[in-house]
Specification:
The chain is an alpha+beta fold. It has a domain of about 70 residues: Ribosomal protein L21 (SH3 type barrels, Roll), CATH 2.30.30.70. It is about 20% helix and about 25% strand. The chain is built from 2 helices and 5 strands. It has a 5-stranded antiparallel β-sheet with strand order 4-3-2-1-5, with no helix packed on it. The radius of gyration is 28 Å and the shape is flat. The N and C termini lie far apart (about 85 Å).
Length: about 130
């Protein structure tokens, strides 16, 4: 029942998951598990823009699916959370008269360090053979 009461809005991200218990409005198997944007909302169906590869190019496809085969995507949750956090950080920095960067920064390589060896022990020195 929850699937039928969910409201979808234009531009919203949705995931396509074919529900085998209902064959009407079922997507082709290639689209199963894909994420797309809603471009049209009807009483029983949702129009979704998806991408698919055709030979060497990627083509936008517009398909209509019944709401049983669609669910809201969580792909933007992390992005929206970061936007809110960055807004708070920017406001605090502005009060202090600072300028901060809100870009994500990749961690660099680990810092260098010196290793001092005090005593060297050989676990298994092995046997050396002479070739005659």
């Amino acid at each position: 029942m929850k699937k039928y009461l969910t409201k979808y809005t234009l531009g919203e991200f949705v995931d396509v998951f074919a529900d085998a218990s209902n064959h009407k409005g079922m997507p082709y198997k290639l689209y199963h598990g894909r994420t797309g944007r809603v471009f049209n909302v009807n009483p029983r169906s949702v129009g979704v823009i998806l991408t698919r590869q055709v030979k060497q190019r990627i083509v936008e496809k517009r398909i209509h699916l019944r709401v049983e085969h669609v669910r809201k995507s969580r792909c933007q949750e992390d992005f929206l959370r970061r936007v809110k956090e960055n807004d708070v950080k920017k406001a605090e920095a502005k009060k202090n008269g600072q300028i901060i960067s809100t870009k994500r920064v990749m961690p660099g390589p680990n810092p260098s360090r010196h290793v001092k060896l005090t005593k060297v022990e050989y676990q298994n020195p092995g046997i050396f053979y002479e070739i005659f």
